[in-house]
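Team,

Forwarding the record for the chain on the shared tracking sheet. I've put the sequence and predicted structure together so nobody has to dig through attachments.
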Amino acid sequence: MTALDSHAEVLKLARLLGADETRLSFLEKVDARELRKLRTRMSDALFDADLPMLQRLASASRLVPNAVSAKVAERAYGPLLCARVAGVMDLERTIDVARRLNTGFVADVMVEMDPRRGSLILGGLPLARVLDVIAELVRREDWITIGRFAGHLPEATVEAALPLLHDAALLLTAFVLDDKARVGQLIALLPVNRFDGLAAAAARHRLWGPLFDLLAHIGNGDRELLVGALRRLDPKSVTEARAQAAEMDALHYLDH
């Protein structure tokens, strides 16, 4: 695990706690594996809190048609409570209610939802609807929420969503992907012509951290394609890339 991995975990922990990431920056010295364990335990505590009350709300919702439940969810519950109730409702019923919700509201709920449950809900929605939700999250530049679910979605859904993620968005999403083991699988789905775009986006937006983190988690063939794209950048950008790589202990990727 690298310092970049720890930084990504701090970003996700800050989102979970609703805290300013700078207040948690001291944790970047902690190994990423330990930070992930801490985040998992906190997630379990937060998402399992108030379980009896949530189960009562879920039981009460069965007394009304799903169309009514959807209206109540949007107008009365709000996204946070909906996310918690959806975590204990019958999955088939939850998916049917979600089909009836406004796309923006579904995106709001996904921000608050346990990704273990949310991925099952998204997986049960029509592909076009899932893509609409992802497009909304891209519009909001909410890379953490996209990253929390991307690693749990079927490969076909991820492949269909890739055109919605512009090059900078893809770098930022891969950086905070919850399951880093899936990063290589995600990048393997890209057409070859996108590697030049990833390198250019890193240079344009100074996303060197996410780019070098990407190099650490992809297969050798894709790594060679991305390093080749970096070498084709203009001389000034190549110089900056090497300086940043040296600072982040990633120069070996460029010299390979």
